[in-house]
Structure formats: structure tokens, C-alpha cells
């Protein structure tokens, strides 16, 4: 079974390219749309690596090509996100149990009533909101990551001296870069979202449409989305690349 690995950080993608190249050579490289797809073997599993670009449309495009064009039967998206949960620290890992597209819905009286993406209450109503990871797969993920220890980030990368934690919960997706403390607080309270990013919801929607497994694994980019970050992003990205690769490789056997 071929697994599609989508990375948002170029540094993470480069790290996986190097690891895969050391094991199998350069592999085949395919340029399609705006994306470079590299095929090869990682830890004995056939994989295709790709970068998404930003936003849900780009994520949906790349996910569709991985499934329909490369025959991937599982998709893992790994990226970064703004923290909504004040309990999170920079560099913590959140494995999505559920993803919600918080910016989809019905606007009434200048307010957005979030509704399931692709649905309208008076045309194709649904009681569903968001996409849930397959519970059997999620149990395997928990077992695979149990005991995995991640190194602490340096102060320059936003670390506080403690090792990064692996946690689980709801991740929100939307085509908006969040830099607003009131909105951050509302999203956390309204949806129980632990983090917010711009791609995972589309990955889940497309993967479910094709009937393939999916995972969204993200790193908390800042303590709280909406506050100025007091760290160097390049340093953060470089340090989390190797650790994120370790998380992905720990999961390959259960996909």
C-alpha cells in the first residue's frame, strides 16, 4: 500500500527527502500542477512525498492527486498551527481526532454559523460537523506513539526547557491566518479546538470522499494564536523537522 505524506514545512519535506534518498536513492520525481511529488521507500513502505502550499484548495488538490494519480491508500498531513488551547506550548504535537472547517457555513445577520463544509441547512442539511479519524486507526496511532520522546526546543525556537508533548484533540481549519486573541478564545470555546491551521480539513474531506484513511498531525507554532511570537521561525522549523520525521516514521507501520 502506498502512503501519501504531505508536509507544510519545506524543512520537514527536505528532511524526509534526505532520509528517503539515503535508503532508496532519489526515487522518481513527478511535477504536476504546482507540486513536486517524489516516490520512494521509507522504512520498507512505499511513499509519495509532496508539499501542499497554503490553504484548503491547495491541500485538496494535492490530496486528490496523491490518491487518484499515485494510488495512495492512506494520507498523512504534517504541518504547523496556531495554538488555541492555552495548555499548549511551542512545539507540542497535536494528533487530530477530529477536524472542523471553522470558516464554512451560513452568514446570517453578519455572523457566521459554522456548518458542515459542502452543505447548506436548507438545501442539503446534515447534523454532522467535521471529520473524525477512524477509531481503529486512532487506537493504532496512540499505541505507536506511546513512549515516543521528543526533544525540547531551544529558546531561540520558542522552547521552555521541557520536552515537547504528544497530545490529541480537535483541530480547526480555515483559509484565514488567525492573529486575533478574541477570535482565538471564541474558537477554543465554541469548538473545543486545540489548534487552528489552513489545510487539514480539506485533506480529511477529500480522503473521506475517496474512502482512504487520513491523519492530521500538527505542531503548535505559538503558545496562543493571536499573540506575537517571541521566537525565530527558521530556528523553530529546522528543529522540529527531525522530530516531526520521527513521529511520521513511528506511524508508518500502523498505516
UniProtKB/TrEMBL annotation:
The keyword Membrane does not apply. Coiled coil: none annotated. GO terms for biological process: L-methionine salvage from methylthioadenosine; L-methionine salvage from S-adenosylmethionine; nucleoside catabolic process. Residues 2-252 form the Nucleoside phosphorylase domain. Pathway: Amino-acid biosynthesis; L-methionine biosynthesis via salvage pathway; S-methyl-5-thio-alpha-D-ribose 1-phosphate from S-methyl-5'-thioadenosine (hydrolase route): step 1/2. Transmembrane segments: none annotated. This is adenosylhomocysteine nucleosidase.
Amino acid at each position: 500500500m502506498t502512503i501519501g505524506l504531505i508536509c507544510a514545512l519545506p524543512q520537514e519535506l527536505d528532511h524526509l527527502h534526505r532520509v528517503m534518498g539515503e535508503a532508496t536513492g532519489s526515487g522518481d520525481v513527478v511535477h504536476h500542477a504546482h507540486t513536486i511529488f517524489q516516490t520512494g521507500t521509507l522504512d520498507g513502505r512505499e511513499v509519495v512525498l509532496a508539499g501542499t502550499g497554503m490553504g484548503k484548495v491547495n491541500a485538496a488538490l494535492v490530496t486528490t492527486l496523491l490518491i487518484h494519480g499515485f494510488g495512495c491508500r492512506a494520507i498523512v498531513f504534517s504541518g504547523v498551527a496556531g495554538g488555541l488551547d492555552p495548555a499548549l506550548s511551542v512545539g507540542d504535537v497535536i494528533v487530530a481526532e477530529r477536524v472542523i472547517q471553522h470558516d464554512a457555513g451560513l452568514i446570517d445577520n453578519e455572523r457566521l454559523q459554522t456548518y458542515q463544509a459542502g452543505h447548506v441547512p436548507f438545501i442539503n442539511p446534515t447534523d454532522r460537523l467535521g471529520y473524525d479519524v477512524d477509531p481503529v486507526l486512532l487506537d493504532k496511532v496512540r499505541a505507536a506513539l506511546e513512549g515516543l520522546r521528543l526533544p525540547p526546543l531551544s529558546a531561540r525556537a520558542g522552547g521552555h526547557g521541557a520536552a515537547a508533548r504528544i497530545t490529541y484533540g480537535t483541530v480547526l481549519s480555515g483559509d484565514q491566518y488567525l492573529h486575533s486573541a478574541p477570535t482565538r478564545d471564541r474558537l477554543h470555546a465554541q469548538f473545543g479546538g486545540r489548534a487552528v491551521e489552513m489545510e487539514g480539513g480539506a485533506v480529511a474531506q477529500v480522503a473521506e470522499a475517496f474512502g482512504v484513511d487520513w491523519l492530521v498531525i500538527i505542531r503548535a507554532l505559538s503558545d496562543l494564536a493571536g499573540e506575537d511570537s517571541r521566537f525565530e521561525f527558521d530556528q523553530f522549523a529546522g528543529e522540529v523537522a527531525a522530530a516531526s520525521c520521527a513521529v511520521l516514521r513511528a506511524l508508518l507501520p500502523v498505516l
